[in-house]
């Protein structure tokens, strides 16, 4: 009965979304207050209905109701409670319902935080949110019903994919979706602005917090996915340029460009049409990611489904939403143009170059991700675009981006002189000599030194900008956005340093060891202490204890397992880790026996934790910026938002 109730609620939500899509648009066109006010109530009702439906599906999983097909194929009565919950979205149908729930949540929050917006603009934006919800609810009900019954009822379920039975991945999709779907607000208000024919500083000021929220959650989601892939999949790296990693990264890049473009629009009333285009593009990239994950067009360990029929429906939604928005943009963008022209040597010029580089980086990732697909469709040739392509094309763009990230905050909004960058130039020259020469001589890597120089350059430039704004670190009473900017840029510097060190000086070794035997890697000694077997509540395991020491001193005993899940007939490897703020070491066991020994992989990863710390610091910076009181102002002022 719970399943039927949840299904019925989705039908009601679909009808509500349909009304939400058209009644407010009619009200805005006719300037009918009651019809426009209907948008607020409809958005709230749609969210409540979908939330109750999602709760019903969660109850099905918690109760292990295997008369529901989704629970039977993605849950098990012996599964830990946490993974019964995460199993709700650890599949195609549940994840798309979670996506739609997030979409409805953002739609319901617009009336709550948009009380000072022009009524017609708000009504049109909520109508666009309703139209997005209508499309995805239609997709769920007709192609991906999470409440479909199963008869006969199996005695037990197949269980959740063992790779997904991890606390980090239980939280990864919700955070990722809060980011992905959050850009729908930018999309909705960009389309609404095109309908209104007006974009101004008030519009930018109101939209910026929503973009900050989406960008920050997406940063957390991507970072958590990176951490999960690092320790669960055993790739031994923090980023592998996997296709599904890439399609989550592209909206992040466009969203970053959108944040900086909004800043220019909110202060200088320039880049209006460009900002609207980025608002459309950020959510469109999210839709592309949804299409890739669920269509099977690209192979990835992250993919939820390989059903081309469902992929065609999502592709149709993508083309309808993005195509419709771009068609409206082509028709109405000329009405949004503000004052033109700017000085290259200015903060605004730096932000414009920042945008161009971010979009170029996005295009590079897009080409590397989808070129194999295009070639397969056109010629039938199977090709792979891997890490060397991205290292050669993407890395130089990001280094150039860091160059402008450091310099732009030191300049005035309007024209400035090279004298403003004199101190940064002197500090940069000193850093270059010390870091590059020192790293080349000691670390035997010139390219590693170049990468570390750029990280140090960005940190130094950010601290110089903070010193300038606080009058030599004396006046700490600054807007929240200032500290958000500082933390974001310092986070990027820390991230860059960690990525460079990890990529340049990481070491890996693979040996076959018997109990009592050792192997060396990067000055660490890994000794296989003992190997045991056992049974957990839902898997069997082969476990190894590996003692790690350095210079004769014990570091840590690592525990690594190879697990077999009988229900899924899957084998996974759980590595043992010793994380520190400096070097990280880990070991993993695979096949073997007493006579031949076991294969042991030992890794040395210096400063890999800096990568994730820097990324989380950037996300924190976004949330801190939300506390800037100027973002809550009902009307535009001449105050800057930087």
Question: How does this structure look, described?
Answer:
The strands form two sheets. Strands 2-3-4-5-6 form a five-stranded antiparallel sheet, with no helix packed on it. It has helices at 2-30, 33-62, 69-74, 81-86, 92-113, 119-143, 167-196, 201-232, 243-268, 272-295, 308-332, 347-379, 387-407, 422-442, 446-469, 480-505, 608-625; strands at residues 507-513, 518-521, 524-535, 540-550, 553-565, 570-574, 576-578, 583-593, 597-606. Mean pLDDT is 89; it is low at 635-642. It starts with a helix and ends in a 17-residue tail after the last helix. A hairpin with a 3-residue loop joins strand 8 and strand 9. 62% of the residues lie in helices and 12% in strands.
């Amino acid at each position: 009965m719970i399943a039927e109730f949840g299904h019925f609620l989705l039908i009601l939500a679909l009808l509500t979304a349909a009304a939400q899509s058209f009644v407010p648009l009619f009200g805005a066109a006719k300037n009918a207050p009651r019809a426009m006010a209907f948008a607020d109530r409809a958005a709230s009702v749609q969210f409540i209905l979908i939330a109750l439906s999602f709760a019903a599906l969660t109850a099905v999983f918690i109760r292990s109701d295997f008369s529901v097909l989704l629970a039977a194929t993605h849950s098990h009565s012996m599964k830990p409670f946490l993974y019964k919950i995460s199993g709700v979205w650890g599949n195609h149908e549940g994840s798309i319902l979670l996506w739609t729930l997030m979409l409805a949540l953002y739609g319901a929050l617009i009336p709550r935080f948009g009380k000072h917006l022009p009524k017609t603009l708000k009504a049109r934006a909520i109508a666009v949110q309703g139209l997005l919800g209508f499309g995805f609810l239609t997709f769920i009900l007709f192609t991906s019903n999470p409440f479909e019954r199963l008869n006969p009822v199996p005695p037990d379920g197949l269980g959740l994919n063992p790779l997904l039975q991890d606390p980090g991945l239980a939280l990864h999709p919700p955070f990722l979706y809060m980011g992905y779907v959050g850009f729908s607000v930018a999309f909705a208000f960009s389309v609404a602005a095109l309908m209104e024919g007006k974009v101004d500083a008030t519009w930018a000021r109101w939209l910026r917090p929503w973009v900050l929220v989406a960008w920050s959650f997406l940063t957390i989601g991507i970072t958590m996915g990176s951490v999960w892939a690092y320790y669960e999949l055993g790739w031994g790296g923090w980023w592998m340029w996997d296709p599904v990693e890439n399609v989550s990264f592209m909206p992040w890049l466009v969203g970053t460009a959108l944040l900086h473009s909004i800043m220019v629009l909110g202060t200088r009333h320039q880049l209006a049409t460009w900002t609207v285009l980025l608002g459309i593009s950020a959510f469109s990239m999210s839709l592309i990611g949804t299409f890739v994950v669920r269509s099977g067009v690209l192979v990835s360990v992250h993919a939820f489904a390989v059903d081309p029929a469902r992929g065609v429906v999502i592709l149709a939604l993508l083309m309808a939403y993005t195509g419709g928005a771009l068609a409206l943009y082509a028709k109405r963008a000329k009405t949004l143009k503000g004052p033109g022209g700017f000085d290259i040597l200015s903060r605004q010029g730096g932000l414009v170059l920042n945008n161009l580089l971010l979009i170029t980086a996005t295009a590079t990732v897009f080409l590397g991700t989808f070129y194999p697909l295009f070639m397969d469709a056109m010629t039938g040739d199977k090709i792979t675009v891997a890490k060397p392509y991205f290292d050669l094309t993407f890395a130089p763009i990001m280094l150039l981006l860091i160059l402008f990230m450091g310099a732009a905050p030191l300049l005035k909004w309007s024209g400035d002189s090279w004298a403003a960058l004199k101190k940064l130039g002197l500090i940069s020259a000193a850093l270059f000599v010390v870091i590059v020469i020192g790293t080349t001589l000691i670390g035997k890597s010139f390219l590693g030194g170049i990468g570390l120089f750029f990280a140090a350059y960005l940190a130094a430039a950010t601290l110089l900008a903070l010193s300038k704004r606080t009058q030599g670190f004396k006046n700490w009473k600054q807007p929240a956005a200032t500290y958000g900017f500082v933390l974001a840029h310092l986070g990027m510097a820390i991230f860059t340093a960690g990525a460079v060190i990890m990529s340049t000086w990481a070491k890996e070794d693979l040996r076959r060891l018997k109990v009592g035997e050792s192997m060396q890697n990067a000055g660490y000694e890994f000794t296989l202490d003992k190997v045991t077997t056992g049974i957990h509540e839902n898997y069997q395991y082969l476990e190894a204890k590996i003692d790690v020491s350095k210079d004769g001193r014990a570091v840590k005993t690592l525990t690594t397992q190879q697990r077999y899940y009988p229900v899924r007939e899957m084998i996974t490897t759980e590595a043992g880790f010793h994380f520190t703020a400096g070097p990280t070491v880990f070991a993993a066991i695979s096949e073997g026996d007493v006579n031949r020994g076991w294969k042991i992989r030992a890794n040395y990863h210096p400063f890999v934790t800096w990568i994730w710390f820097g990324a989380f610091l950037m996300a924190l910076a976004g949330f801190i910026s939300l506390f800037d009181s100027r973002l809550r102002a009902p009307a535009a002022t001449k105050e800057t938002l930087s």
